[in-house]
Each structure stands twice: as structure tokens, then as C-alpha cells.
Amino acid sequence: MNNKHQALPEHELLTHKSFIRNLNLFDWAFALLIAVGAFIAQTQAGLHMDIYEMVILWASAGIAVFLGWFFKPMRWFIPVGVCLAYLAVDLYGGDIKRADGFLLKYLLSSQSAIMWQCAFVFFALFAYIVGAMAAVRKNVPSNTLLGMGTVFAWVSAMAGFVGLLVRWHESYLLRPDAGHIPVSNLYEVFILFLVITALMYLYYEGRFAVQKLGGFVFSFMAIVVGFVLWYSVSREAHAIQPLIPALQSWWMKIHVPANFIGYGAFCIAAMLGIAELLALRKEDAGKKSWLPHSQVIEEVMYKAIAVGFLFFTIATILGALWAADAWGRYWSWDPKETWAFIVWLNYAIWLHLRLVAGWRGKVLAWWAVIGLIITAFAFIGVNMFLSGLHSYGTL
């Protein structure tokens, strides 16, 4: 009888390296760079910041570090964007009249950067659509045009990111006592939406190799760009205005960005819902679809909704805390609050049906598409057609 002990195979959880141990020298260098940047920002602007804003600054630095660790391209995206914004700040030299300088006028002023963002959204859309058509014709998963679409998408996100940072500085140049984070009106939050949606899509594109879906996401983004351009020309919305009293709160700095991470994710999910319906139509007919398999599309859609639901929940909680601070009560069933709850409930049911009931396929795809319509009404429609405590974001 053999009494030798046979070595048992180790469970993968015991052999798998932790997230922290997987970090390399570049990851830690990036974290140090962000920490130094946050320290410099606090040193230069600390006299104008209260304790809450300092907490937000360092929390934002922590989030930036995590993003760089989790989504590697952010390790260059964030530093490059901050450096370009700092260059613009340096070119201004504390005087808004210097905006007529060549670099500011054509590249780095907030309005110039945002216009470049809008242009590159259309460039990306064209490259994604034509690239997908060429890939289908040659029966290849990717090609140069699709790669150009990815590059253009990154450039659009970078331009919007820089534009928002510079616009923040410009608000202080115009009125030192009334400067504010650029998320106070429809024009500014739509720019934020375009940046967030582009970055989220680029993450999913790299994670799941779904370049052919870029045309769907950027089609909706192009519609948003059209609105931004119309709104800028017809309403002069690009002009920086002082905050109305209702928005003069540090809660705005965290509530609005969290909300728009949710909106961006729901937008991506809806566009992927359309793509899944098209893929299912081909698959049900026994034909090969030019799109990724419907199961892959649905997996990305599910992850987008899960992320969006998480951040929308956080934003709703933050909004309730803001309401208690501003109006003395957490919830008043104001039309905006009511429709926010409807949006939250819609995606909560979607996730329940997928995770618990095991639903898949067309119903959830259609649900995601309709969910975007509900979300759009909650964001814009309520302000246009219903009056309430939140009636300060009308067209």
C-alpha cells in the first residue's frame, strides 16, 4: 500500500495574484504623479477651497489612480489632458483677454477644444461606419479605418476633457468670486456626457474587441453633438454664466458627474440593444451577422447597465442629501425626483429579470432601448414640460 501523500492542486483563488500585486512600476509611478498633481493643486488653490472641496480633490485623485490601474490607457489620458489644460492656464496668465492668442483661439480655449471634440465625434462615426462596412466586405474582424475610429474617439474624449478643465479656469478669470465646476447647465453637462460616454465605450471596445459597435454608440453621440452645436448657436449657451443660487453647493461637484456616468452607460446599453436586435435577426434567420455574436453584445450591454445603475443609485442618494441640505427634506416627489425613481426602477427590474429570472434576448434588448427614452425624458423632458423644484435647466 502506497502511503505517500499526493499533492492536491491549489485552488485558483489561492494561486491568483491579488489586484495590488499585479500592479507594476508604471502603475505606482502614475499614482505618485497623480498625488503630486493633487498636492500642487491644493497648494496653489488651497486658500480658495473649503474642507469639503479638499476632500473632493483628494477623492478625485484616488479615483483617477484607480481608473489608471483598472483601465490602463487612462495612465496617459489623464496626465496628458491635465498638462494640456495647464498649458492653457499658463497661456492665459490670469487674463481672459489673452484668449485671442493662436494656441488658445484655435486649440486650447474651452470653446475651441469643445469644437474639436464635436468634430472628432463625427470623424469617429464616419471611420467606424465605413470601417465596419469594409471589414464585412473583406470578412475581417478589424481594419485600419476601425482603428482610426478608435483613435478619433480618444481624441474627442481628450478634447472634451481639456475643454471642461479649461472652462473651469475661465469661469474664475471672468468672475473670481463666481467660478465653478462646468456642470451647471445643459451645454456643460452634455460635453461631460460626451466625454464619459466615449471613455466608457472605449473601455468596452478594448475589453471585448467590439470595434464594429462603435458606429452605434457614436451615432447617438453625433445626435448629442448636433444638439450642442444648435444650443450653442441659438442660445449662446457656450457663454459662461454665474451659478444660480440653487446650484451654489459643493454637492453639485459630485452629484452631477455621478449622474452622467449613469446616463452615459444607459446610452451605450441602448445602442447595443439596437445592435443586438440586428444580430439576433440575422442569427434567427440562420445567416451570419456582420456584428459580434448577440451573446457578446448582450454581455457588454449588461455590464453597461450594471455600471450605470450603480452610479445612478449613488447620484440619487447624493441628490437626496443635497435636497435635505438645500430644502430641508430628502425627498418631496418633485417631478424630477419622481422620474429619477422611475429610471432607477426601470433598470432595477431589468437587472432583476436578467440575474434572477434568467431572461435573455430580444425583450431585454428592447427594454434597454426604451429605457433610454425614459431616461431622456427624465433628464430633459421633465425640465421642458413639468414644473417643480428642479426647473432651472430648461432649454
TrEMBL record:
Transmembrane segments: none annotated. One of its GO terms (cellular component) is plasma membrane. It is a multi-pass membrane protein. Keywords: Cytochrome c-type biogenesis, Membrane, Transmembrane, Transmembrane helix. InterPro entries: Cyt_c_assembly, Cyt_c_biogenesis_CcsA, Cyt_c_biogenesis_CcsA/CcmC. It is found in: Membrane. One of its GO terms (molecular function) is heme binding. Pfam families: Cytochrom_C_asm. The keyword Membrane applies. One of its GO terms (biological process) is cytochrome complex assembly. This is C-type cytochrome biogenesis protein CcsB. It comes from Neisseria perflava. The gene is ccsB.
